[in-house]
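Standup notes
- DV: blocked on the single-chain target, sequence here:
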Amino acid sequence: MPKRIVAAAVVAIALAAAGAAAAAVVTHQSSVSTGTVNLHQTKLGKVLATRTGKTLYLFKADRNGRSACYGKCATFWPPLIVTGKPTAGTGVKAKLLGVTMRKDGKHQVTYGGHPLYLFKLDKRAGQTKGQAQDFFGGLWYVVSSAGRAVTKTTTTSTTTTGTTYTTTTSPY
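- DV (later): unblocked, structure below
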């Protein structure tokens, strides 16, 4: 009888370990993409996004096409990781797409030489809550189809009896 109990305990431990490993893989894959980069309409205009419309950002602290975002930074700004070759969706220039190797050997999608990231607080397609944020040693910007940082914010103008008032508001 004790052998059966020990065997059952070993099986239970093995299943629990396998489940924990599978959960770790699923959690880590949150930034793994099919590799398709699209344009998506936001308050800042058409910007790069994932296939599901999640906004993509560049990090001004990155140098020479290499990511400077690791550890806690990558928790808030998950890199767009791809297995295989990234593909250009509508309005995206295929010649500007590429990959760069991260320290862990994974391939991060680049556009115009800039590594691409998601922002943890963007929960829905088209949100741009990471725009112009200054965290982890640099500024974060959405990316245009030309591969450049979009540095503008939304602007509205109001005219009252010949006087024009311009109000610049944050996109979030």
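- Follow-up: The CA atoms of residues 79 and 117 lie 4 Å apart.
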